[in-house]
Structure formats: C-alpha cells, structure tokens
Design a protein that fits this description.
Radius of gyration: 30 Å
Number of strands: 0
Distance between the termini: 90 Å
Number of helices: 9
Shape: elongated
C-alpha cells in the first residue's frame, strides 16, 4: 500500500459518512473506509462497483487534497454557454424577423449561436435554447409521414367499389 491511513483519518471518514446525505459522496467515502480497513483494490471494486483505477484516484486525491476533495459535489447544474438574458438578447433579432412574417432558418441561427459562443455546438442545442424561451414550431407538416402513396389510395378505392357491389 502506497498510502497509509491513520486512526484519525479513519475516524474523520466515518464521521463524514454519518453526516452525509448524498449517495454518490457516500460511495466515495465508502471506498476510503474500506481501504482504511485494509481491503485490496479488487475487494473494494467488487464491493462498490467502481473500477480499480478510479479507486486509486480517489485515494490519491484524498491524500493530496484532503477529505473535502472527495466529499463535495464538484459539478453544478447550469452548463449553458450563455445566461438566460444573453440568450434572450441573441434571439431578439430573430423574434423581430418572425414578427414581420419572415421564415427563420434554424441552420443560420445555429451558425450564429456557435459564432457567438466561440465554439461548435451540438445539433440539438439550438432547439433547447428555443424551447427555454417559449419558441415553438408553428408551421404544420406538409404531409403525414405515414401517408400512403396515391397509387395505393386509388387501388383501395377500386377495391372498396368492388366489394360493395
């Protein structure tokens, strides 16, 4: 074992487990507790479902950065490129064009958005931006996607006439 846990560290981990309410953090603390108890990486991997390399990284991170590095959430929820206000300002030019009755091209909007944020974006991202701001597709479909061809419709009409007589 490269890293040796002391009795104080073990008590620190156990007390953090008692006060914790997050399941993901609980799993990471469980890895440290099992390692304190002398379990091997394979035993910890089978008990927790983590890969042995991830377990090693958690232990290393604990010794280098402390309990806080393992027992805190590292990610927040907002991963947008722009704030809501910036998105509104971006969409305002397109809103004015739509109110004048012009057709809007999503491809053009996507290119402008990518240029504004400074990197490429996923194909569905512009649609999520539009949905966040209450935009919707108003234009109806030109035809039903499962509509039968004209030949099939005509053949069906002929069959109906034949069976009615």
């Amino acid at each position: 074992m490269k890293y040796k846990f002391s009795a104080e560290q073990y008590l620190e981990i156990k007390s953090a487990q008692k006060t914790n309410r997050d399941k993901q953090i609980e799993n990471r603390l469980n890895v440290l507790a099992l390692r304190c108890e002398g379990k091997s990486l394979k035993e910890i991997a089978s008990a927790t479902g983590f890969h042995h390399a991830h377990i090693s990284n958690l232990i290393r991170k604990y010794f280098e950065e402390g309990l806080q590095a393992v027992s805190e959430k590292h990610y927040s929820g907002n991963r947008r490129n722009m704030s809501i206000e910036e998105e509104s300002a971006f969409l305002e030019q397109y809103r004015q064009a739509a109110e004048r009755g012009q057709m809007l091209d999503i491809g053009e909007m996507e290119k402008a958005y990518a240029e504004k944020v400074g990197h490429s974006i996923g194909s569905g991202q512009i649609y999520r931006v539009l949905q966040r701001h209450g935009w919707r597709k108003v234009m109806p479909r030109s035809k039903h996607p499962k509509k039968a061809s004209e030949e099939v419709i005509e053949a069906s009409k002929k069959l109906r006439k034949k069976f009615r007589n």
